[in-house]
Design goal:
The structure holds 2 protein chains of 2 kinds. By secondary structure, chain A is α/β, with parallel strands linked by helices. Chain A is built from 7 helices and 17 strands. Chain A has 3 domains: 207 residues, Rossmann fold (3-Layer(aba) Sandwich); 53 residues, Adenine nucleotide alpha hydrolases-like domains (SH3 type barrels, Roll); 78 residues, Translation factors (Elongation Factor Tu (Ef-tu), domain 3, Beta Barrel), CATH 2.40.30.10. The chains are: A alpha/beta, B alpha/beta.
């Protein structure tokens, strides 16, 4: 790792406990620290989504900015709010909506990391004189002199590991990034917050997609399209079983994701799950649990992170969603360097287009791509 | 009644005389407020709500401070007709039922000076013709930087903010020409000749008066500003001055750094202890594109790339030189970054 002393570090501060501890830790180590909060989304734009009695969604709420500013003042570091709303809408919100309408299940957090936090924020930091950035992500970074590559490893706190959302980062981005919490467990981070005298030690972890209040993405999509003067395309249609028989009707393909069981409204002898959705025919296909199993997938837009692009097939463990136990698989190169075929040793349940397939070798993050 | 109370009253009235003198007004025409925003609220809401006319129409311009624009919008919700037009179009927008025109004296972001005197002339002609019509001007940014004489300007209401002349924040004043039927907008006290209920902030009014006494001419400011612009253009020939073609305040320079983030430049300079600004801060403290620059025809992109430099009487030539150097270096660095980003 390069020596970080005496170089200005810009800390991305959300107002939560993790990024607050990052700022406090780096400052205690003697680094000149500047705190910045990214203003990404204005919740007042879609007021109908805010339930009565206050905001549930946490994205860029004034309370969080207040907390971040307060933490910065306790630490005595310069602090700024930077407005990336336009870029966030273009690169994260719009693709999120379009992906759902196209029948996929997107991961806006990974997009945000690729296009906002480790791109625009990094550039802003550099422009104002901070050569490095630090965030509260749970992941570990190190430099391997033998391969001359930065390597990313999973967090020691397996529950908090966020490498699934970070597979798209490049060597140039890793070279300027610090993840000071990757070697810690969450309770340790909370203890540190108390020790540093930070008033956010007991704050709850954020869970959902930050700009979707209450996690109701279907409502968000409807409200956002209405704001843009667009109508939600009529996605209502038939629910069919794997034999092609119509077994019911549904209120819109974008309301369903592969593997989903709830909300189908179809009575059957055994539990039925969504096998696939097809916006072009407006059909939702359902089937039994075993019909959800797949023994391979194609990952597109693949990024190799800790290793160079392999030319031959290799073994790896692959996660197909964030809370998935990595499954042993063979990564088979295709003619296209950005496309990799993943062949699982054991069939995997609910391979979902739009989610990421992230490749690991033990704790080392090899890379990943988008399930097509 | 008691003497300590009388002493406080004397201090307040002495301050009122000083502030009145600063504007060429008489003391009874000055209402102390909590600042420029309250002065604008009092002028617009108090004036229009208090008039007995059945139909009311209000005219203002798009580059006003939010404390003017939002008051006018509120009147719109209360059933008043509202027109927001460029200063040049005010005259043709006036109607028989127009009761108030509010036009900023000088803009806070670009320094552009508005032809308030001309507006006063045609408003005055209508009044002579028997129309109930009044003229308000937001002078928060102009007072102290250019000479202001409210009688010569011909306004009925004129707003001031004390911190713009180096007094503490939290105090301001509204000039209310004698005979103007302004009604208060808060209730529960007969202070300030029944125009502003609430205990007077005596020490703040005294500080306001003292700052007014210390304020002096604008010649030095203009020289600082012009030196800054000349030196900056020499270092960065690609920048543009927003509003440079107009008559403007001597202390303000609004620079378009095309292709770079104004926000980044503000942060880079702040980290070197130089305080400049861009646009208007939203509630979170981040910066939104300036509505003033947008109204002037700049794009959102250009507005985001614009930075406002304001100079004060305590700035020195050495500070200006350091500012030019730091600005040029930071802008070049940001431009390089953004090119990489775009590429």
């Amino acid at each position: 790792m390069p020596d970080s002393a005496a170089r200005i570090i810009a800390v991305a501060m959300s107002g939560g406990v993790d990024s607050s501890v990052v700022a406090g830790l780096l400052q205690r180590q003697g680094a000149p620290v500047v705190g910045m909060t990214m203003q990404l989304w204005n919740q007042r734009r879609l007021p109908e989504l805010i339930p009565e009695g206050g905001a549930v969604g946490r994205c860029c709420s004034l309370d969080d900015v207040y907390d971040a500013r307060y933490v910065a003042s306790i630490l005595g570091i310069p602090y700024y709010v930077v407005n990336f709303e336009e870029r966030f809408e273009e690169q994260v919100v719009k693709p999120f909506v379009e992906e759902y309408l196209a029948g996929r299940t997107p991961i806006p957090c990974a997009q945000c990391n690729n296009f906002i936090k480790f791109d625009q924020f990094l550039e802003m930091a550099d422009g104002v004189g901070a050569e490095q950035i630090a965030t509260g992500h749970y992941a570990r970074l190190s430099f391997n002199p033998a391969t001359e590559r930065y390597e990313m490893r999973t967090s020691v706190d397996a529950n908090k590991d966020q490498t699934y959302f970070l597979f798209g980062l490049t060597q140039a981005q890793l070279a300027r990034t610090l993840f000071p919490l990757g070697g810690m467990a969450k309770p340790q981070v909370r203890d540190l917050a108390k020790e540093l005298g930070l008033p956010v030690a007991e704050k709850h972890d954020s869970q959902e997609i930050c700009f979707v209040p209450g996690g109701d993405y279907a409502n968000f999509i409807k409200a956002y399209l209405a704001e843009q003067g667009r109508e939600l395309p009529d996605g209502t249609g038939e629910i069919v079983d794997t034999a092609g028989r119509v077994v019911g009707e549904h209120a819109g393909t974008h309301r369903f994701t592969v593997g989903q069981r709830r909300g189908l409204g179809v009575a059957a002898g055994e539990p039925l799950y969504v096998i696939s959705t097809d916006p072009s025919t407006r059909r939702v296909q359902v089937g039994r649990d075993r019909e959800l199993m797949r023994d391979s997938l194609i990952a597109g837009g693949v990024n190799w992170l800790s290793i160079a692009s392999p030319t031959e097939a290799r073994e790896a463990q692959v996660k197909i969603r964030n809370k998935h136990a990595p499954a042993v698989a063979t990564l088979v190169p295709t003619g296209d360097p950005e496309r990799v075929e993943v062949r699982f040793r054991q069939p995997q349940r609910a391979v979902t287009p739009g989610q990421a397939a992230v490749f690991y070798n033990g704790d080392l993050v090899l890379g990943g791509g988008w399930i097509v | 009644m008691h003497r300590p109370g009388q002493a406080a009253r004397q201090h307040l009235e002495s301050a009122r005389r000083t502030v009145a003198g600063f504007l060429g007004a008489s003391a009874t025409e000055i209402v102390f407020t909590s600042g420029g925003t309250e002065a604008n609220n009092l002028a617009i809401l108090g004036m229009v709500r208090g008039l007995p006319c059945a139909r009311k129409h209000v005219v203002t311009t798009p580059i006003e401070h939010p404390s003017v624009l939002e008051c006018v919008r509120q009147l719109g919700r209360e059933g008043v007709d509202v027109s927001v037009v460029d200063a040049a179009d005010i005259e043709q927008t006036l109607r028989e039922e127009t009761v108030l025109v509010s036009v900023m004296h000088a803009n806070n972001e670009t320094g552009a000076i508005h032809p308030v005197r001309e507006v006063a002339a045609f408003v005055g002609r209508r009044r002579q013709g028997g129309q109930t019509i009044y003229l308000h001007s937001d002078g928060v940014q102009a007072a102290g930087k250019i000479p202001v004489d409210v009688r010569e300007l011909g306004v009925d209401l004129y707003s001031l903010s004390a911190h713009k002349v180096f007094a503490p924040k939290g105090v301001g004043a509204l000039y209310v020409r004698k005979g103007t039927p302004l009604r208060g907008i808060q209730y529960g006290g007969r202070h300030e000749r029944e125009r502003r209920a609430g205990t007077e902030n005596v020490p703040a009014a005294m500080a306001f008066a003292r700052a007014v006494e210390l304020s002096d001419g604008a010649a030095t400011l203009e020289r600082l500003r012009d030196n800054f612009e000349t030196a900056l253009l020499k270092r960065l020939p690609w920048v543009e001055m927003n509003g440079a073609g107009q008559e403007r305040l001597p202390n303000t320079s609004n620079v378009l750094f095309r292709g770079i983030s104004g926000e980044g430049l503000v942060i880079a300079l702040d980290l070197q202890n130089m305080a400049v600004s861009t646009g208007a801060a939203c509630s979170s403290g981040s910066i939104e594109p300036s509505h003033v620059l947008l109204a002037m025809g700049r794009s959102r992109e250009e507005a985001r790339s614009s930075v406002r430099f304001s100079f004060g009487r305590y700035n020195t030539a050495a500070e200006i030189a350091a500012l030019v150097d730091a600005t040029a270096k930071a802008a070049e660095k940001l431009r390089k970054e953004e090119k990489l980003l775009a590429g």
